[in-house]
Write a structure and sequence with these properties.
There is one protein chain. 37% of the residues lie in helices and 0% in strands. The protein has 2 helices and no strands.
Length: 46
């Protein structure tokens, strides 16, 4: 599991939602949909 997966799954582990993309303040949905409207989100490999 990578760092981003760990961060996205924290709300699930805390019982705040069932899926990472359901959490209101998560970027998981944007990554899942490849949504580029949040131009402040940057994916950095490495």
């Amino acid at each position: 599991m990578g760092k981003l997966d760990y961060i996205h799954n924290n709300p699930v582990k805390a019982g705040l939602c069932q899926h990472p993309w359901e959490y209101k303040y998560s970027s998981a949905g944007s990554y899942l949909k490849k949504d580029t409207t949040w131009n402040f989100l940057v994916h950095i490999d490495g």
